[in-house]
Design goal:
By secondary structure, the protein is α/β, with parallel strands linked by helices. It is built from 20 helices and twelve strands. Helix 1 links the parallel strand 1 and strand 2 (about 45).
């Protein structure tokens, strides 16, 4: 499907200011949406919103369906009467530009336990009716996820294949016993997902009422230690005891002599196809409910994927295997209708990947930081774009534009200055201007570039562990953004939308 000519910002909710260590769905999220409206922007793009595991990466989640309950706002719980002001005040943390996940999680768990207890004790018939309706609407995934989480917590988050063998294999007696033993924890997890849903859909409605569309993100692969693999082992390359057999990665290339070994279990596509791709259909259904459009990460994996034995230490000894992307997307389209999808088609893209993308009219991605490492035929240079694409200065995996320019080879910097007819002193604004005036239907830029920020404010450095997903901004940083400059760029590049969603 084609998207209207428009513009927006990429920023994850954890980057919002808040009093509780990480950003959430509270009032500062609405302040950001007001900023978008005030600057005539109509897109907010986020990273995956699933519950995060080790390293707090949005791309390593315990579920492909559930929400990250740590994004629930305590201040909104106070306003609903589920949390005392005193408790919320005690849980406050210093407002910095770095997320404090560990302390935030610890504090929020205490708050959420208090709020759940009050909900359970004081809920009205209407509250109970809504809660039960939520559970019914999400029955495809909710029961497995909440049971998985309860069992996982009991096992100190060890991978599910290291649990008691009967429970790992989902033997009926073990499942029945666990549901009874962890009934209270399961209901608590159900409520967390219910409250996540309530707060997210309220925020999404606020976005849409302001004329802002929300673009989500769907990783192609899921984590081995997830409710999805535990609950549906027949769809994944694991053995009867849950050990991974075949895993995902990418082969050796210019960036890595040994390739990248991601470790996610691959799909048993033949089994999925026998089941009419039901798991994928339900996954996309959930994403289309949560968002107005979605970016599909590692889109090329739906055409062909790099298969590596789980016994290997690197990704060198692998092979390309064809995936049933055409059948899959045709099935999803038949079941769900129009597919508002952006294809992440970066990296080595083959003609068959392009054919799959174009068959369904999915826009691809153009990254301006990649545009200056070769000659005028570079696909990322604006004069080579087609309309049906989305242009970015960089993504969450890139440095900020200022940080990139400071470390880029001088030949690239020179080409950029020649192309933009500038001296490079405002390189971030030069690339934003290039993207805005390009023919790309959508222009989306990381908030850090509008804030003129350097490398220390980068969101993620691929292949590293420990200092990623931490960036946050302060209210003052948002107030200092040059709003008039953004409005002028949007007006002059014909990206101002007047219609409401």
């Amino acid at each position: 499907m084609r998207f209207p000519r428009s513009s927006g910002i990429l920023v994850h909710p954890t980057s919002f200011p808040s009093k509780y260590g990480i950003g959430d769905f509270g009032h500062e999220a609405r302040q950001f949406i007001d900023f978008l409206k005030n600057t005539d922007q109509t897109i907010w793009q986020v990273l995956p919103l699933g519950p995060t595991g080790y390293g707090n990466s949005p791309y390593a989640s315990y579920s492909a369906f559930a929400g990250n309950h740590y994004l629930i706002s305590p201040e909104l719980l106070v306003e609903k009467g589920l949390l005392s002001k005193e408790s919320a005040k005690k849980a406050e943390l210093p407002l910095t530009t770095t997320a404090d996940y560990e302390q935030s999680y610890s504090n929020k768990e205490k708050l959420f336990s208090e709020a759940f207890k009050k909900f359970d004790e004081n809920k009205s018939k209407e509250d109970e009716k809504k809660f039960e309706a939520f559970k019914k609407e999400n029955k495809y995934w909710l029961s497995d996820y909440c049971l998985f989480t309860a069992c996982s917590l009991e096992n100190n988050r060890k991978p599910w294949n290291l649990w008691d063998e009967k429970l790992a294999k989902r033997e009926k007696s073990a499942i029945t016993k666990a549901k009874k033993e962890f009934a209270e924890e399961i209901r608590y997890q159900e409520w967390l997902q219910f409250e996540f849903s309530n707060q997210w859909y309220d925020l999404k409605k606020y976005c849409n009422d302001q004329g802002v569309r929300v673009i989500g993100d769907i990783p192609i692969f899921v984590d081995h230690n997830s409710a999805d693999v535990w609950g549906n082992p027949e769809f994944f390359e694991v053995d009867e005891t849950g050990n991974r057999m075949l895993v995902a990665g990418v082969p050796p290339d210019y960036f890595s002599e040994t390739g990248q070994l991601w470790g996610n279990p691959l799909y048993k596509w033949k089994e999925l196809e026998k089941n009419n791709f039901s798991w994928w259909v339900e996954r996309f259904r959930q994403m289309f409910n949560l968002f107005d459009a979605i970016r599909v990460d590692h889109f090329r994996g739906f055409d062909a994927y790099w298969e590596v034995s789980a016994k290997e230490k690197t990704a060198i000894k692998g092979r390309w295997v064809e995936a049933p992307g055409e059948k899959l997307f045709k099935t999803i389209k038949k079941k769900l209708g129009e597919l508002p999808i952006i294809a992440e088609d970066l990296g080595v893209v083959t003609p068959t990947v392009e054919a799959l993308r174009d068959m369904f009219n999915f826009p691809g991605m153009k990254i301006l930081q990649f545009a200056f490492d070769s000659d005028s035929t570079n696909d990322f240079l604006p004069h080579n774009y087609s309309q049906n694409c989305v242009v970015y200065t960089g993504t969450h995996d890139n440095d900020t534009t200022i940080g990139w320019y400071k470390t880029a080879p001088e030949t690239e910097c020179h080409r950029l200055r020649e192309y933009t007819r500038s001296d490079g002193s405002e390189v971030q604004w030069e690339l934003i201007r290039l993207g805005m005036f390009s023919v790309a239907d959508q222009a989306i830029f990381p908030l850090q570039d509008y804030m003129n920020l350097d490398t220390e404010h980068r969101m993620n450095t691929p292949g590293t562990i420990g200092n990623n997903w931490l960036w946050r901004y302060t209210p003052e940083m948002l107030r200092n953004v040059d709003r008039e400059r953004i409005r002028n760029l949007i007006e002059n590049s014909n990206r101002k939308l007047v219609q409401q969603i």
